[in-house]
Design goal:
It is a single chain. Helix content is 26%, strand content 24%. The protein is of the alpha+beta class. Strand 3 (59-66) and strand 4 form a beta hairpin. Helix 4 packs parallel to helix 6 (249-263) and helix 11 packs across helix 12. The chain is globular.
């Protein structure tokens, strides 16, 4: 593909800004590099941050787009301002470009130059191959962003980030045990609540050298998940938000959303409604990428497993879970998606979204034994016994049903031992709307691929209707650095845990629960191939990469 050659010409996006000259004390600094994003066939968003040190003065910027990294063939120019109102970020929509072309761009403030970025437009009709580097869950204190730099070495032409680009926690919060030793203590040190807090957090993440490499190497298409705002967010609140004590959720969400729009190279579909980020991209008729928001614009509040199991709340919780009006997208977004699917003639319909869509269902006997609030060895042993009992019953049923004991029959009886999604924050907590989306794609005879993030682990699974008919395929990216099951289920070896998941979850075909990295998705007319790039550690800049884990759909 063309991507590898383009990245070689870009030098991985690691160029240094030019010097403004001796004695220039009022020159703007480009401390966070450059980025591009939301490419279309004829345009792309260009981004930078520019500020005169210790000044709130506006920074006048000129931008250039060229056909060569030396800028001898400049094809587009323009001007933009970096101001205090935008946290000194600046974005320009470079229009009038040629489809399927690689470009180089930079910003200038007087004699000061930014580093050079490499970007590209979406391909013209007739595209035969597209490669996407897919990311999620980049947690600064948890480890290095080596996955970003590794992706820039592949043939990926475009980057897709499915959310949790930042984490909002305080410096002593989630995944911070090694932060001081790694030199990656969160800033600000308190939990992000205000616009200034979120801006500081984005600045820290974007100061990361590997982040700069990725953003300068290829255009990014992104959506948010919960941690850009607060853990387990939904339309009206979040698990990690205390109304009143931490201000109003609406104000916090507005601040978080503003900072996201400032720091990400995105083109908002509706300037009057910053919460609306769902949008589509057509890659030359080969694939249509529909980026969704399953987190805040329409999501009803999550139901907990405890609510379903508690006799005092079970009836109401069960009715809510099965409600035909329960939504994770919101009615407006759902209708938009159905319209996009119907109108697109692309070979592949691809949903880029936050949470697992596949049926990650476990029997209640197992879920009751696996208490997420208790990860002690004794609790993990009890969970393993419940899993072993269920898998043994399942094996006996497959080989010699007459040999099943009554206890084993009860384990396999879904009326006595029903199945529930182990993570009700995902689509398993919104089963009716999942069926609507999948049925819509099936009725339209679309070739469906869903890209997901959020779990910090890697998955490949069939997407099936309630009747068991496969209508698509899910590829879920592991995290860039946020820890996965290896940090919580310490008594279960990763290989054994993967075998358990595949044994219990009928639709699951692949899982990786112990390594961080990214997903390389390569599309052709006949197949969608996902390659999982897995790093042996994110706690050191010395690491190895395993790229031998592939899953193919459609071939």
């Amino acid at each position: 593909m063309a991507g590898g050659a383009a990245l070689s010409a870009c030098g991985g996006g690691s160029g240094s800004p030019s010097s403004p000259g001796a004695g220039a004390t009022t020159a703007a600094s480009f401390n966070y590099g450059v980025a591009s994003g939301d490419p279309l066939a004829d345009r792309v968003i260009l981004w930078t941050h520019a500020q005169i040190p210790n000044s709130d003065k506006d920074v006048e910027l000129a931008w250039e787009v060229a056909n060569d990294p030396g800028f001898s063939r400049v094809v587009k120019t323009g001007t933009v301002k970096a101001t205090a109102a935008t946290g000194f970020t600046a974005k320009a929509d470079a229009t009038g470009l040629v489809a399927g072309n690689t470009y180089y761009f930079r910003f200038r403030s007087g004699a000061a130059l930014s580093s050079v970025g490499c970007t590209r437009t979406l391909p013209a009709p007739g595209a035969s191959e597209v490669a996407l580097a897919v990311f999620s869950c980049s947690n600064y204190p948890a480890g290095f962003f080596s996955a970003y730099a590794e992706a820039a070495k592949t043939n990926a032409q475009f980057a897709v980030h499915l959310g949790d680009y930042i984490y909002e926690y305080a410096a002593d919060g989630y995944a911070s045990a090694d932060a001081a030793a790694l030199g990656r203590v969160s800033a600000p040190t308190h939990e992000c609540l205000t616009l200034d807090d979120y801006r500081q957090r984005y600045a820290q993440y974007r100061s990361d050298p590997d982040s700069k490499v990725l953003h300068a190497a290829m255009p990014l298409i992104a959506v948010w998940d919960d941690h850009e705002i607060a853990n387990d967010a939904w339309l009206g609140g979040a698990e990690n938000h205390t109304e009143g004590a931490e201000g109003s959720f609406v104000a916090r969400r507005a601040a978080a959303v503003q900072a996201w729009a400032e720091w990400m190279p995105v083109r908002l579909p509706d300037a009057a409604n910053p919460l609306k980020i769902y949008r589509s991209f057509d890659f030359g008729g080969l694939l249509a990428l529909h980026m969704l928001d399953t987190r805040i614009i329409g999501r009803d509040k999550q139901i907990s497993f405890n609510e379903l199991m508690n006799p005092a709340t079970a009836q109401q919780a069960t009715a809510t879970l099965a409600s035909t009006t329960r939504s994770i997208l919101g009615q407006e977004q759902l209708q938009w998606l159905q319209g996009q699917l119907a109108a697109s003639n692309a070979t592949w319909q691809v949903l880029g979204q936050q949470v697992l869509m596949g049926r990650m269902e476990f029997p209640v006997s197992v879920l009751m034994a696996l208490n997420p609030s208790d990860t002690s060895p004794a609790a993990q042993a009890a969970g393993q016994k419940a899993i072993s009992d269920y898998l043994t019953a399942k094996a006996v049923a497959a080989q010699n049903p007459a040999a099943l004991t009554q206890a084993q029959q009860d384990l396999l009886d879904t009326t006595k031992n029903p199945k529930l999604g182990y993570n009700l924050d995902a689509w398993d907590g919104y089963p009716v709307e999942r069926e609507i989306v999948l049925a819509s794609a099936a009725q339209l005879r679309k070739k469906l691929v869903v890209l997901s993030g959020d779990t910090h682990n890697a998955w490949a699974a069939k997407l099936t209707l309630r009747n068991g008919v496969q209508v698509g395929q899910e590829f879920a990216a592991t995290s860039v650095s946020a820890p996965g099951f290896e940090e919580y289920l310490t008594s279960i070896p990763p290989g054994q845990l993967a075998a358990i998941f595949k044994g219990v979850v009928d639709d699951l075909q692949y899982c990786e629960t112990a390594r961080r990295g990214f997903l390389l998705m390569q599309f052709s007319a006949t197949k969608a191939e996902g390659t999982y790039y897995l790093l042996d550690t994110v706690k050191s800049k010395t690491y190895s990469v395993d790229s031998q884990n592939r899953h193919v759909y459609g071939a």
